[in-house]
Amino acid sequence: MPERLDELTMARRVVAELRPGQVVALGAGLPGRVPEAMPPFATGTAPVQFLSESGVLGYVGPGESSRPGAGALVDSGGNPVALGPGGSLLSLGDLAGMLRGGAVDVAVIQPAQVSSGGDFISWTTAATPGIFAPGAAVDLAMGAQKVIALLPHTGSDGTRNLVADSSPLTDGRNCVNLIVTDVAALRVTEQGLELVEVAPGWTADDVAALTGAPLTVAPNLREMTLAWNDADADAATAGKVYPDGPAAIADLPEGATVMIDGFGGPGGMAHYLLVSLRDQGTGNLTIISNTAGIARSVNFGTPPGRLAIDHSILIDHRQVRKAIATYPVSPSASRPSSFELAYRRGEVELELVPQGTLAERLRAGGAGIAAFYTPTGVGTLIAEGKETRTIDGKDYILEEGLRADFCLIRGHKADTLGNVVYKGTSRNFNAVMAPAARITVVEVDEIVAPGELDPELIVTPGIYVNRIVKRPEDFSAYE
Amino acid sequence: MVAEKERLEREVVAMRVAKELPDGGYVNLGIGIPTLVSNFIADESVVFYHSESGVLNCGPLAEEDEQDIDLINAGGQFLQPVDGMAFFNTVDAFAMIRGGHVDVTVLGAHQVSARGDLANWMLPERGVGNIGGAMDLAAGARQVIVAMEHTDRQNRPKIVEDCTYPITGKGCVSLIVTDLAVLQPTPEGLVLKEVAPGWSAAEVQELTDARLIIAPDLKEYEL
């Protein structure tokens, strides 16, 4: 048999599969070699953001951190890694949320076995027979848009790692899209495994002889691709900063669901984007927010004598069809908000949600959780029509995750990769909503280069932010 | 007329509630009389305040010339920056509440029932209301204290056998402190524990819809 590929060359085949701008989660084992296989890039660009289940987003490969006073960073295999400019650090809950929420483009895992249907067994299971130890591989494989299995074609004793039938002890069914081994690259199709590339010197028959599942051979079977394809690199790295508010929401469609917050006061409210949306005139909107605009009617969180811009400008402009909110009306019946007046005229609908339930519904929506049980609202009007369940003697109601088309958030500073830091109590719902929308636009006071924000202090990682605009210096949040 | 007898000031009600807060505890104060409670914490004890706006260890309000829109409590009031303040997002703010990390919340109410049901988010005549953080606090705080006037503006009892307004939480209130009395909802009914100076149990009963069980050790309001 011809020579097999070494680990780094296998990793280069994975790199050839990646595209600029992607977020790529790497499991333990061979996937840990992928960053080394990336070509070198100029400082300040981040063509691919690597994510490790150890809680690091945006690392660039082996090495020690160059940040003074910073602790050691390791990848999921425990190897020291260096953070790239604009990288950030995450808790495991946030990390799992990124995966399930669909924010990760590609996951690379090293299973022990892959079946022709794309099922896999995690390597720990094979190494420790009888002990089921899926680790993070299950989350990686379930959550990422595309899953690449990177593994030797056979075990050291000649065992075939690619098999026809799935073991009953699978860690994930129908998850793997592409298999890269030390002799071939294979696609998982509905008809089974398709051999698309072979290592130099290998034939389809050589590969078939080492494979425990039937193969179809792609008509354009070729030698292994090992080159990074940077055709879209410029678009991917230049794309997030928009010249102004109107440009950042130009494609916000009629009838969209839009998250806009601030807790209620002017702190943490994306006023510039709000005014841009008002001026754009897009109608029939569903807005998701804590209040539906009360700052103007009762000076909530507003310095005396100022009239704050809030959701009321969209209501007054007849752009809102429905509000999902926790505190929709003025606390003072004698000073009704625009929303309350429109509600009384029958022009807008209201879905009233407890505040903590709204926060958790958004978290769930952003983190790929369909629904959850909460004790909040049991026995009240909120529970009507909802499934209830008694768990350990306590009653709960089922609430569903919530997502939106657009999310307009207000940060203090962002870097050009979309990492955001907030000020004081102004992060509130902003940080919760950012992961839960298809397009998240952040309005900040200042845009800085990657690396200028302390990775330990980043609250919203750029993986959740699609567009960035700077609030003009002469813009006022008051009328 | 009992209805016209002098009642306690709001500050005195707040002072009585302050006695209930555990030293070193985490406490969430609602709007109205509850907000006043922080003025009456004994000098030797420490209470850590939590607000749904996303801040822990908040304290005094800011002076008018030092107001910062990025530093507010859940009532939209401006806070003074304090050493040891911690900021967090709304998910974390409510994980603290529902997860049982907030020891006590003090809330206002439209009605409280004899068995501790709380109604404080909606007046039916207005047709629409604000829930805000109230339902989560009712369901999640380890102890819910209601601080309020004993009757509404039309002098109708706010402490009732069963709430007629939409409720915020069932059986969640463990103590009611009013401008007339201190009462404890129990599964057996409402226990009258303390009365304001000059008030008798019978006079308090006259302004209370729920039937009162007089505590064997009924006392005058203890401050």
Task: Give your account of this protein's structure.
The complex is a heterodimer of chains A (479) and B (223). Chain A is an alpha/beta fold and 479 residues long. Helix content of chain A is 19%, strand content 27%. Chain A has 2 domains: 217 residues, 3-Layer(aba) Sandwich (Glutaconate Coenzyme A-transferase); 232 residues, 3-Layer(aba) Sandwich (Glutaconate Coenzyme A-transferase). In chain A, strand 2 and strand 3 form a beta hairpin. The longest helix of chain A is centred in the C-terminal third of the chain and has 12 residues. The N and C termini of chain A lie far apart (77 Å). The model of chain A has no long low-confidence stretch (mean pLDDT 90). Chain B has 5 helices and 13 strands. The model of chain B has no long low-confidence stretch (mean pLDDT 95). Chain B is an alpha/beta fold and 223 residues long. Chain B has a single domain, classed as Glutaconate Coenzyme A-transferase, CATH 3.40.1080.10.
Key descriptive features of the protein:
heterodimer, A: 479 residues, alpha/beta, Glutaconate Coenzyme A-transferase, 2 domains, 10-stranded mixed β-sheet, 7-stranded parallel β-sheet, 26 strands, elongated, B: 223 residues, 3-stranded mixed β-sheet, 5 helices, 13 strands
Compact summary:
With 479 residues, chain A is an alpha/beta fold. Chain A has helices spanning 7-15, 92-100, 123-127, 137-143, 204-209, 233-238, 245-248, 271-280, 295-298, 312-316, 338-344, 355-366, 428-433, and strands at 22-26, 48-52, 56-62, 81-89, 106-109, 111-115, 120-122, 146-150, 162-163, 178-180, 184-189, 192-198, 215-223, 257-260, 285-288, 320-325, 349-352, 371-374, 388-391, 394-400, 404-410, 413-415, 420-421, 437-444, 446-448, 467-470.
